[in-house]
Each structure stands twice: as structure tokens, then as C-alpha cells.
Amino acid sequence: MSQSLKRLKVKLRIAVVQLNPRIGHVDQTLARINSIVSRIERYRPDIVVFPEFALSGYSFHSRSHIEPYLSQPTNGPAWDICQRISKRLSCITVMGYPEIVRESSQKAYNSAIVVNANGELVFNYRKAFLYYTEEEWGCSENPAGFQTFDLPFYQKACDSDGRLYDVSLKSAIGICMDLSPYKFQAPFYDFEFSSFHSEHSTELILFPMAWLHSISATRESKNPEQQKKEIAQSQQSLGFQSHGSQGEYQLDILLNDGTCIKESPSAVTCDLPDVQVKSAFSHPAEPDLTNVDYWILRFMPLLAYRQRKNWFSGGLLATVLKKFQEIRTTYMGASLEKPWSFEHKNTVAVMCNRCGVEDGTTVYAGSSSVFKFNGKYGNFEEELDSSNRSVEVLGSLGKGYEGVLLRDVEIEVLREVDDKAIAIVPERT
Ligand code: GLN
């Protein structure tokens, strides 16, 4: 049997479901999920991603508050719905949920399951970097830190002659705060998560999130009461639901076969009291571009950057890397061998956020997006945001509505292929 190294294109259809769950309303959220899934079923997505704590809601304040929602990976409502969706759509389903280990430790985690088309558990990931509300209910950090796993796809990799192969993608889950500096205390430029995945050449990153909009009142807020009032006012003027979506969803579907569907819940006119809140929070059907740019910036090691090649002459990089005690081989994307270690690689990142408001203080940013980091333009780019040509923003949902973003993505991979195992089947149109 002969083997050869081939460049293959892995073509995947990805559905990103943005939700607005409310604590105590699991059944209502499940009903809306069913309604969203029935709208995308005919497009046969390969992967369906849901947000962090997609069914339970996010802001828990004590262990007894979260206790009724804790479950094991293969037990509980997240497992049930993921299995059902995976089998019905013949797809991979990813969903965030609050996990309990029912052994002596009784440890709780912020986790996400990955379920395959047979309804089997492929991976259970636990969040490594925690947000401060998680401390309130005694969440533990992932002892394994950031991780990768192989995610198999059948007949999804295509060579230049149009032959199709089975392929496994080196994949990862990140959960919300995993993208931020550890406890917001680590240096911003350490880029822990994206450096790890650039060094491990991760090809597909799936990101369930409950990412806060900047108008949220948090621990750091100077005048939380005033902010709460402004949030309530803007919610009212926009007719915004603090949870749910009144049965109306935002659909944003753009596929290679020419399918293009863009629907938003009926536009709301807004007359917001405060200029700052108005600009930040109005236009709920549009993404928060500041937020999208921030996520892109946190993937800095995967972005082309002209200055990179000048930085580390004279041994400075070696000194910086020593600080990481040999666990890191790159800093801000630069390695000792190559100015940009991600050059010629590519990675798709699926950012699946929630929307809505919890506790009258926590406003989620929505803006769920699909990014492709293409590993090109290393010597040219200067801006570390969506204008950088090395990141393709394939689509984003609005900040305020439940709905679904559906995109076809292509990931180029190099694989040893075995001529005898070649199976030729017609491509899906
Ligand atoms: N960095 C995130 C934020 O500011 C953390 C939230 C989370 O982990 N859910 O929104």
C-alpha cells in the first residue's frame, strides 16, 4: 500500500446557535433550541455549537443556587439534547453545562461536551481560566489546562482531484474566559490560550461563551446602581427581552451553494436616554464590532504582524521564553526558528456567545462569530483587528437576539493518505 503526503481541504458546515437562557427556565430554552434546530436541519450542518451554560443560565451566586443544574457529562439535559440533535442531524454537537464529579471530591466545573453523530461523547472539556462569578459557586479549574483532541469527520477532506477522505481535525474547546488573561491578572501579551493553540497547531477551535458586553455592571464598576438604571432603561426602550426571544430569531445563513438567508426580528426604534449606552447597546441585530475586534486581538499569535520580525533580534526572545520555563516555544506568535510560527498554518475559530441580561447587571455581548485565521500576509499587516487580512470574519450575529449563524468553512490540512483507502463519493451540493 503506498502512502503519500497530501494537501487536503476539509469542508465543514458550521452552525452557531446564540441563545438567551434564563436560570430556572430550562424547558423553555429547550423548546426554543428545538425551534432553531428545525430551521437549520435541512442544511445538514456538520457541527452545531451552543453557548457556555446554554440551558442553565450563567450567573450563579452560590453552590446551592447552581446545585439543581449540576450534572455529569453523560447525564442531564445538555447530554439529552446534544444526543438528540447529533443523531437527528448526523452532526457533532457542542454545548456548555455545569458539571459535577459525583465522587468523594464533589468538584464542580464549567464544562462543555462534544457529542458525535452516533450520540457518543467524544470529549468533555473543563474551563481552565475562571471568571470571578464562578468562584461564588466553588467552580474548580481544569487540572489538565488547555487541551486538544481529535475530531473525526467522514468523507469531508477533499484533494485537488476532488477525491474525498475521512479526516480527523486537531480540535479544541475554549470556554469564554479561557481567551482572557488568567484572572485578568496575567500580562495581556502572554496570550496564554492562543499561544498554546498556535504551538499545538490546533486546526479547529470551538468556543462556547457567556461573554459580557462592556456596559455590564461588574465588580469593577464605580457606580453600579446608576449603571443598573441605564441598563433597565435601554432594555425597555429597545423592547429587549432579558431572556428568550419572543419566538423570533435572527437567521444568518450564507452557503457555498448560493443559499443566502438574512432575517432579523422586527427592527426596534430606539430612543435611549444616554449617549454612551445608546451607541453601545442600540442596533441589537448588529454585532458589537468592538467586541469582535477584541476577540480577534486575543488571537494575536495567529495574526500576521509586520513588526514581529524586528522584535526579537539580539536574543531577547530567548530571554522572554525562559520566563515560561520551557513550556512555551513562542511569544506573541514569534519563535526562535521563525518570526511568525503560525505562518502557512490555518485555524477556524467558532465563537458562540449568549445574549440577554442577567441580574439586571450582566449584559451579554452576543455577536457570535466564525473566524478563519489563514496564516498569510505575515510581512505586511499592522492592525491587530478585523481589518488584518490574516483573519477572515466569515460572519457575526447581532448583539441582542437569539438565532443561528450558518457558514461553510474550509480548513487546509496536510495528511499522509493511503491510496487503497480512497473512497470516491459525490460531493454534497
Ligand atoms: N472574559 C469574559 C468576559 O469579560 C469572561 C466571562 C466568562 O468567562 N463567562 O466576559
Automatic annotation (TrEMBL):
All copies of domain CN hydrolase, residue ranges: 12-413
GO molecular function per UniProt: protein-N-terminal asparagine amidohydrolase activity; protein-N-terminal glutamine amidohydrolase activity
Biased composition (Basic and acidic residues): 222-231
Compositional bias segments (type: Polar residues): 232-243
Gene3D superfamilies: Carbon-nitrogen hydrolase
Gene Ontology process terms (BP): protein catabolic process
InterPro entries: C-N_Hydrolase (IPR003010), C-N_Hydrolase_sf (IPR036526), Nta1 (IPR039703)
Pfam families: CN_hydrolase (PF00795)
Region (Disordered): 222-243
PANTHER family registered for this protein in UniProt: PROTEIN N-TERMINAL AMIDASE
Protein name: LANO_0F15368g1_1
